[in-house]
Amino acid sequence: MTMQRRALLVTCLACVPLAPGSHGGQPMHELVTLGLLAMLILAQLMLLLGARALAKGLVSAALLPLGLALLSYTLPEYWVATASWDAMSRGLDTSLSLEAWRPGLLPTLTLLLLGALIITRSQAARGGPLLLVMVALLVSLQGLLAAAAQAPLLRLAAGPWATLAMALLLVGQGLAAQPGWRAHAATLGRALFPSLALVVATLLLWHHQQGVTERGLRTAVEAEAQQLGSRLTREVYDHLAAVERFANVWTLFDAPPTQAEWAGQAGPYARDFRFLLNIAFVDPDSRLTRVYPASELNLRIQGTRLFDAQPASREAVSLALVEQRIGRTGVIPLLQGVPGIIHYLPIPLDEQRTLGAVAMVISLPILAETLFQEVDGRHVGLVLRQGDQHLAERLPEGRLGPWHHAVPLGVAGEPLTLSVQPSHASLLQRLPRHPVISLVIGLLLAYLLYLVLHGYTRLARQHRRVHAANTELRREIRVRSQLQQEIEWLARHDELTRLPNRRLFMETLQANAAQRPLSVLICDIDHFKRVNDHQGHLVGDRYLTQLGDIGRKVIEQHGGLFARYGGEEFVACLPQAGGSQAVEIAETLRRSVQDAALSQHDGSTLTVSVGVVTLEKGALDVATLMQAADEALYRAKAEGRNRVKAAPALAVIERA
Q: Which residues, given as ranges, of the chain have pLDDT below 50?
């Protein structure tokens, strides 16, 4: 099975986790994630089947909502508020909010990278290997976060089916891209590993920052809840102290207050402390004779004897009326039908007699409402309870956040608890965006780093290849130049003796055509054929080489050129050498050869015969000059060899 078919098979398997029957009851955001993932899987299949245009169209359609989701994660709240995102979402469906449809952060990034892999066809030069590794890390991270016990505030991971489908799609893309990466195997490591290190560092930094920001926000929310509870407790105790002062005022009177006097004194307290249901005067018989405010609910209980009508407060009433001490009830059902707490403050006349008592009635529903008014009920859920009993609550319309803070309240000595639970939307509004921005920028920088390093590595390889080609070319040029020089040298020199040959001799003769006098020598080895016949060609070649060395030494001392003319004949060109001087040079050459002790097969000394000609004036005629020198050589041979003969005066060449 080819790699392409394997990729097609694995990509088809990625569709299995997306089967509709396995996703009943899934939340909207998970269905959106699965839908976008299905579009990318279909696009990958189209790409593998060759329909690139259709694949790009599907990817573009999937990238639009993914891009919006990523923007909602990264843009600060003061740029685009969450309410604005919700309003845009409600443009599609009136009941839809951003958090309802938006995929988690890591699934959003994973799907974006999978789409980028499809668009770039996972090409190594366009960052395919790094994108593939980034997707693998993000999918693995989602699996780890999904297995964690504590759910983060920000939705990070997709569900197990979506994660499995992402992993299968990733494997399919890797199989499809692997053949194309082989050509870049030498450059992948240098570009991939530094970029991968940056990706890992980015993910670690993001995870740390995300944890720090969420812990910081949770601490701030908890501190706000504590401040709310402390403020309420302090207000209750301030009111209790004020009512004690209010009770002390009536110790100055010997008679119970009239309704007008009671209303005049109790009015300011009731207005300052809104959670008071009423302030009542209790006579020594435990009857409520005065009540403020004079509402219909309060007037109905006026005249009621507490010992009879409210057994739960008997002990507290007795402390105030009999023992002249402050009495306090627990949370009891009030006569008005709501739960509350009553403080009874005695009004003593003397140590034995009591004028009555002041009853400060705290309504827990009114207390809770007073408390609830201090916070925005659209964003915070509040529950007032005593133990497991719910006394009052107010919950926002949206989803509550994961953080629940229980604040103990000291209300008249009763252990009440205020539960504060901010809404999920309000927490997301306050959550800093810089960890997500750091993550996105870090992944983008890693991708750009890969592209730079990969491009630089490819350019470096190309540069090395060009440099190697240039080096080889220079070497080839040098070799060819050397060969050319050798060819040129061989064209003008004799390979055996290393002397100039006939061509170079003729060129030298023409180059010195204007020189006067100009002498030419022709030298021939006597009986050289006998050397080859009796001693062999190797000896003959050695004799020729030695004679060439002797001739070069003699002739070049006088500024001339000694050359091999052919066979056993040698020639010499002597510019500026007159006839007598040329003859002397020829004699020196003849003697040098004779003194070299080169012998024939019979022991006789090897000798040479030399013909000399000199051009004193007139134009140069090479053929005539060489003919005259050859004739002089012939005479030397004819007269017995081993001698020098100059051309006669009549043979001097002149041409008008």
A: 649-656
